[in-house]
Amino acid sequence: MPGAEVSRRDLLLGSAALGTAAVAAALTPRHRTTGGGDDLAGAIPSRIGSWTHGDAEGIIRPPEAEPSDSPYDQEIARTYRSGAALTMLLIAYGATQSDRLQVHRPEFCYPANGFSLAPTKTLALADGRGGAIPACFFTAMLGDRREHVLYWVRIGDYFPRNWWDQHRALLMSSLRGLVPDGILVRLSTIGADADEARAQLIGFAGALLRSAPSRALLVGA
Amino acid sequence: MTELSIRTWETPPATLWRHWPLLAGGLALAVPTLVRLAQELWTTEAGAHGPIVLATGLWLVWRKREAARAVATPGGGQAAAMLGGALLLYLFGRVAGVLGIEAFALYAAGVAMLYVRGGAAVLRLLWFPLLYLLFLVPPPDLLVAALTQPLKVAIAAVAAELLGAFGYPVIHAGVTLQVGQYELLVAAACSGVNSLVSLSALGLLYAYLLHGVSPRYMAVLLLFAIVPMAVVANLVRVLLLVLITYHWGDAAAQGYLHDFAGLTMLIVTASGVFAADRVLTLMRNARG
């Protein structure tokens, strides 16, 4: 029987593995950025400009598989009315971001509910402080229903416009040693005219960012 | 070496203890990743096969240790390079927080370690356990969504047609099924499609244990039996869900969904795979 001495190869391999594990532990981001999303519902007012808060009927959500699957720590869904106009607001906030806790994009959520989508356009949305953030706009159609959607995603300090950007934002945050928080703000309205809808939603977004006490949460510091 | 060999029974601890540096290093890498996998994946329907695959996969490797030792030759520079690459990828996955990359890199590092210590011959010998252990690595979300979304919608449509043919008032609209006065969200009912991977893993294990190593047969079984059966099982699940909702209401359907849906899928798929396996084996034997 071979002796009980430990092979040199084993030691080499073991050290390499141990070393990697140690470096990984040292580099793993630990500092969690929280944008104050502890009370999301309280942070979004019931009156936004000329809009008042109604119920949450008819708001498209990601089809839920299992409750435990929900990556969102908090979610609010509300309809706001101003005269005859209706805006649906969906905000989802995740205080912990990892690969599996990705903020879900509406481009997946709507098709999952059976909608077909017109191409997404990017636009610069005024952020209420004199700057602008990248936001996305598209039209979703299901039968007679034409829903126009304006949304943005903030992950840490970044505003990823698509899946690639999202992963890059997570990576950059990680390399800076931060575990970023993430928020998805989605505004939508139903109507026949896309341009009209877009103007309405941009107006609502402006009013939201001017009135919300938690602007930092929505568009970063 | 004489043919007469007295086989001393080495207890697992004794064998493992000799390689303790490998074990220590391996555990240092594996434990954090496995913990994250357990927390985020193994409790979901899509990832429930995780612990089973891990346990049975390691057991399959362990079974072959004598045969592996017999053909082991140290791997060369290629093996070392592979290990280096895998460790770097692991580091990247950990730091970036991407569990899929982290898990895959851990798997690659494990394979690379076997390569370094045992050479290509050992990898060839252990091809099935190694391939099987790949089921532990979560596939990219995007890929899964792209593959399962059309399938979910198709299953819903078929279910609506079938039930309609039997006179049930079922309407399929987009991703909802209207049955009587209830509206069912198809995606929730069809989330069983996520268990396609689980069922494939278990089906392959079954085939391996029953028939031994045969790549072609496994491919055949997978394509023509396991995957179709899993889809059929999901269809059955949706049909049952709709029927229960129609006859006994929403609450009963929710109860079914949480308690028995998974079981239904497993039973239907397992029965289907057993049956398909028998038929395919008969066909193979008939061909000689």
Can you tell me about this structure?
- The complex is a heterodimer of chains A (221) and B (288).
- Chain A is α+β, with helices and mostly antiparallel strands.
- Chain A has helices at 8-27, 40-43, 106-112, 163-175, 194-211, 215-219, and strands at 31-32, 47-48, 51-53, 74-82, 85-94, 116-117, 121-126, 132-142, 145-155, 178-179, 182-190.
- In chain A, strands 2, 3, 4, 5, 6, 7, 8, 9 and 11 form a nine-stranded antiparallel beta sheet that branches.
- Chain B is mainly α.
- Chain B has 13 helices and three strands.
- In chain B, strands 1-2-3 form a three-stranded antiparallel beta sheet.
- In chain B, helix 8 (141-165) crosses helix 11 (215-248).
- The chains are: A alpha+beta (221), B mainly alpha (288).
- Chains A and B meet through helix 1, helix 3 and helix 4 of A and helix 2, helix 5, helix 6, helix 8 and helix 9 of B.
List keywords for this structure.
heterodimer; A: 221 residues; alpha+beta; 9-stranded antiparallel beta sheet; two-stranded parallel ribbon; 6 helices; 30% strand; B: 288 residues; mainly alpha; 3-stranded antiparallel beta sheet; 13 helices; 76% helix; elongated; disordered N terminus
